[in-house]
């Protein structure tokens, strides 16, 4: 009974150790290569080394140095095609141009006189775009502060944050793949603090600094004033144009009248209007 208990306890401990000590996390940015290093030193030449992927333990690579066998496999859906390389010296596995579908558990098994295994948990993160800061045009024109939006498109497993200097103002996190995010910020027009919008995942970040003078140079209020000023100017200009035109027409009429008078004859003395001239000429034609 005691022996059985001891045996059970011992196997439990070894399973526990295998589960805890042998999982190594590896983070990599999409498009890069990752090396899953096999740093087991005591390895025999006739040991078989197997690399397996995923919960279903698909065989993706096999090494037998004694027989000079170095094989890689594409996986059941071909997702590893042209992406796997084996380091013939060390037995390490290299995954090139990694994508999110290659994230997951990779198990290394050494099968020989002595069995051992090691598991790598590979996390693949997307390339981070630079956040884009824009003026929030949907905002209230009567607002006395400048409304801004920091936005990113097609991101997953990221956090988007606004910083004032080095202190965090607000943030939003997303665990889905490929969605768009935006985070608002209100600043005063005369604010001279430094603000930045930061997009980050566990292994990298991208920062865009806010240029208040560029984005918030016109307050909506001054914009209204500007628009009404331009409007009144236009009205004044229109009125002035009207007057000038009327004057023009009058001048033209006057000139015409003068010319008619001159060609008519010098019998009548310079009449002040055409109507006058016609009236004066009428009796002479009779
Ligand atoms: C990397 O993988 C992507 C997606 O499968 C592919 O479009 C691209 O051409 C690959 N790049 C290289 C350098 O192999
Ligand atoms: C930022 O967003 C604006 C408006 O959507 C767009 O015109 C501009 O090209 C974007 N800039 C960058 C760097 O994405
Ligand atoms: C505009 O701002 C005023 C006061 O700041 C607020 O009462 C009103 O609801 C806002 N309107 C919209 C459409 O946001
Ligand atoms: C902006 O900075 C100047 C000096 O750098 C300071 O005198 C002024 O009070 C600041 N304005 C605000 C609104 O913080
Ligand atoms: C962004 O990454 C750099 C190093 O790449 C680090 O020094 C900096 O603290 C990070 N910034 C944030 C806000 O995480």
Per CATH, the superfamily of the largest domain is Immunoglobulins
Task: Kindly report the CATH topology of the largest domain.
Answer: Immunoglobulin-like
**Reported CATH architecture of the largest domain:** Sandwich
The ordered string of helix (H) and strand (E) elements is HEEEEEEEEEEEEEEEEHHH
Protein name: Ig-like domain-containing protein
Pfam families: V-set
Keywords: Membrane, Signal, Transmembrane, Transmembrane helix
Would you kindly provide a written description of the structure presented here, covering whatever features stand out?
Mean pLDDT is 79; it is low at 12-20 and 270-280. The protein has helices at residues 2-21, 212-215, 220-264, 274-285, and strands at residues 23-29, 34-36, 48-53, 58-64, 69-72, 84-86, 93-95, 104-111, 116-125, 132-135, 146-155, 158-164, 167-174, 179-187, 195-201, 204-209. It is of the alpha+beta class. The protein is elongated, with a radius of gyration of 42 Å. The longest helix is centred in the last third of the chain and has 45 residues, at 220-264. The chain contains four helices and 16 strands. The protein has a six-stranded mixed beta sheet with strand order 1-9-8-3-4-5. The chain has a four-stranded antiparallel beta sheet with strand order 13-12-15-16, with no helix packed on it. The protein folds into two domains: 9-125, Sandwich (Immunoglobulin-like), CATH 2.60.40; 132-220, Sandwich (Immunoglobulin-like), CATH 2.60.40.10. Residues 97, 99 line the site of one 2-acetamido-2-deoxy-beta-D-glucopyranose (NAG).
